[in-house]
From TrEMBL:
Organism placement in taxonomy: Bacteria, Bacillati, Actinomycetota, Actinomycetes, Propionibacteriales
Gene3D superfamilies (UniProt xref): 2.40.128.270
Domain DUF306 intervals: 19-115
The protein's name: META domain-containing protein
Highest taxon above the source species: Bacteria
Organism: Kribbella rubisoli
Any Pfam family hit: META
Length: 137
């Protein structure tokens, strides 16, 4: 699947227009704990924008989904002071998404892999059942 920045068309087996929450993060096969009380949120909007958050600041920009590789062109990032642990986690996530991770999707689970790091995310509707969510992107 090759998708360019701009309007994206999702479908069966596509992460487009969905929001995901992390359920597992590993580095070199070992659990990488996130800051307590935080999760990774990732949204791929239909207008070609990727939004990620690791518990504090939000990062957004253009996204491409070329042949199983997630390309990201940073556009904007909020600059909220959240303390050193969350800020370090934000930096780690920003570095991860800019390294063009490979992506796969299996039903409602999106997996991103770059180097030895794997982030497994679940569709937000299943990760937070019963929660009120804003309309899907």
């Amino acid at each position: 699947m090759t998708v360019k920045y701009g309007p994206l068309i999702g479908g069966e087996g596509s992460p487009i227009g969905k929001t995901y929450l992390s359920v597992a993060v590993t580095e070199d096969g070992v659990d990488r704990p996130l800051v307590p009380g935080s999760r990774i949120l990732l949204t791929i909007r239909k207008d070609g924008v990727l939004i990620v958050r690791a518990g504090c600041n939000q990062l957004g920009g253009g996204v491409t989904l070329d042949d199983g590789v997630l390309g990201f062109v940073q556009g904007v990032q909020t600059q909220i002071g959240c303390g050193p642990e969350l800020e370090a986690q934000d930096d780690w996530l920003m570095d991860f998404v800019t390294r063009r991770p490979r992506w796969t999707i299996d039903a409602d689970t999106l997996t991103l892999i770059s180097g030895g790091t794997t982030i497994v995310l679940l569709d937000r509707r299943l990760a937070e059942p019963g929660e009120a969510h804003s309309p899907r992107a």
